[in-house]
Amino acid sequence: MVDRLVNSEANSRRIAMVENCFGSSGQPLAEQGRVLVGEGVLTKMCRKKPKSRQFFLFNDILVYGNIVINKKKYNKQHVIPLEEVKLESLKDEGYNRNGWLIRTASKSFAVYAATATEKEEWMAHIEKCIEDLLRKSGKQPPSEHAAVWVPDNEASICMHCKKTQFTVLNRRHHCRKCGSVVCGPCSSKKFLLRGQSDKPLRVCLQCFDELSKERVRPPNQPQTLTNSPSKPVPDTAGSGGDSSADDDDSEDDDERVNTEEKHDEGFTSYNGVKNGFGKKVTTV
Length: 284
Known about the structure:
Layout: H1 2-22, E1 36-45, E2 50-58, E3 61-69, E4 73-81, E5 86-89, E6 99-103, E7 108-112, H2 116-137, E8 173-174, E9 181-182, E10 189-191, E11 201-203, H3 205-216, E12 268-269
Antiparallel strand pairs: 1-2, 1-7, 1-12, 2-3, 3-4, 5-6, 6-7, 8-9, 10-11
């Protein structure tokens, strides 16, 4: 009984520390039954370039934010309910190694760990939390997820018309359905994607045509529209505007430290599991 009380108090202190690190920019995280499972730095693939982000895994949510002062202050807090999450491992390609996709109905993106062991631990802990949540709630995992956006630097011309070259005047836009990088004329239509927003979002002409057909197709006919690009790539899923929609991926982040630093601590677990560097950590 005493050990349980001590563990509960330790967990409460850790959650309070996470809240304090986000300051007034973050939402309260302390809830009955919520436990901080672990934390660590991962490289999140953003629209412009990869960026280091601090991630906190709880037993029911995944929280991440921009690193302002390492281990002391974070901002632009994002909270993802784990019941909505589906993980998908990525194959190593060139410099992109030890990665996986975090998919939800409203936002999907790729993250990368420093080592294969760290990736394995992150994925195992997240999957276990999701499994426990779904078992307790009796819910089914989500069947549809937002597309992962093609990064800007992988498309020098429109992926739809194959003609328009992107310049300062011809800006890149992203289709919210397939994630492709397209020009303005090829993404002039909008469609209501209820999993992502309550307002119509920019989609490419091809997806608009297919979505329009899906809307009028009889219920007994199968859907054929795919929901993701052929190659898993970074995202900046967000509101219905152009490529600069997501604050998390903006280029004016007020990061006052170099966040492209090496990950020197791996995944820090708070349930007695060793992290990627073999260091035993506090058990809750």
